[in-house]
Amino acid sequence: MPDKYKATWISYSRIRDFQTCPRAFYLNYIYRQPENHHKIQLMTPALALGQVVHQVLESLSKLPTKERFKISLVRKFNQLWPQVSGRKGGFVDETTELNYKQRGEAMLRRVMQNPGPLAHLAVKIGQDLPWYWLSEKDEIILSGKIDWLEYLPDQDAVHIIDFKTSRRNREAVDSLQLPIYHLLVNHVQHRRVAKISYWYLNLDEAPVAQKLPNIEEAQTAVLTVAKKIKTATKLGIFKCPQGERGCRACRPLEKIVRGEAEFVGQGQYGKDIFMLPPIEHREIDLAKNSQLL
Fold this sequence. Notes:
The protein is α/β, with parallel strands linked by helices. The protein has a domain at 118-224. Helix content is 39%, strand content 17%.
């Protein structure tokens, strides 16, 4: 078996970023600052909101079904919010922060009123970061975290649920997110995937079922992009599709490289976290919504 530490690791976010802009992929996952060798991350209010909402919901799967809603999800949200409060979350003023915080509370109230599958049995994957060899021959590993796996006892199967905190947009039909999640869950646990859904927490009171991707087609599609990422990494060629002027995905990251962003602290895995002025946040969030995070 190949050495996993020398393999090319891919995930949905890496594939999404590479397909959007190879230059943004490079800056997000490969580039390191020359002065301290740290990777960089751009924080925005939308990202901060999604981060805390996901933390609250994902923590429920660790609890017995009868214990999950004994403590208000809004209370848990407020306890976690200081992690992203102020400039740590990319907020430039209290009014903007309050607006995002209230949106998060509203989403979690909707879940408490309509818990649906979150009140049912859940399956926990026994890995902090689930992964498997997408191709040992090509030395490519597919990894990622699944928001929720509902257990379906009548079928001894699982239901994949992905939480969405975007305000308006829905996932594009040609997104590889669900094919990737189907592949990942199929390989890192033994139960059959019977159902797959998005839950748009800003819009819907229940998960919205999606067409279950064909596993063979998913393997082919994901491996094709993964090979392109491996080749680009080997050659060191990561060009923005819009040329030197850049695009919405890479321009904000280029500002960090040029020293035009504000350092606000260190994040997970020692990344240096930066923020940009509010007008640029709006451009970044619009770009991410077009990718439908």
